[in-house]
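Quick illustration, no need to memorize.
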Amino acid sequence: MKKKITVLLRYPKVEKNQWKRELIEKLQEEGFEVSIIFGEKSYQRHAFAALKDFGLEIFKKKSSIDQQKSVKLYSYFKDKIHVETVNDLNSSDCEKKIRKINPDYLLLLGSGIIRNNIIVLPKKGAIHCHHGYLPEVRGVSTAEWSMYLGKDVYISTHFVDPGVDTGDILLRKKIPLTPDDTITSVRLNCRLHSVDLIMDTFKLVESGDYEVIKQRPEEGVQYFLMHPFFKDLVNQKLKRIKAEAV
């Protein structure tokens, strides 16, 4: 019997990252039965989230946020696999839909903070790929904060628990920096590398031959959305890396 993965996403009207489409299709190729639940139907919330995450760059015609050809994930998948929409991924409505699907795993792909009433539903656990070295760097803007603090940039997969990025760690992967990098390119690179790391994570968990790395709350720091002042400092660091490489 195929193992079931339910992917949680927020934005059905605008979500079109190519790497997420590629990941879902790879999971299908590996024999998983994949379904998707989208939350956040409101256009206003869509626009606010895009501005918060990417700033005015979101309005550029040729944005470097995702340089690959992309399509809206909702439109692409709605006639191919089981796709649902809800107003809130933490709602009782979402809970009922997940219970009906009865998945082995939840996969959180930019779903925001998911509460325990949802986390406990899958038979084998909820998994997330965090763009930081766990347990040291938790929260958001973690690639930027890592560079600002002079740390290596990592992505980490982990089981999700009620805390913020505090669940048992499964795998980590270092993201190399290049002389031509910007904050945007580093973030994109984290996303692209997430595809293989998430695939490796599901293969590992399904094998049953693995050990998790337990986290303690005091081991790491939770970071918050980086202010433009600090982003400028990070970009200056990246420019120095480029100058030193010449």
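The beta strands are 4-9, 33-38, 82-85, 105-108, 125-130, 137-139, 153-159, 169-175, 221-223.
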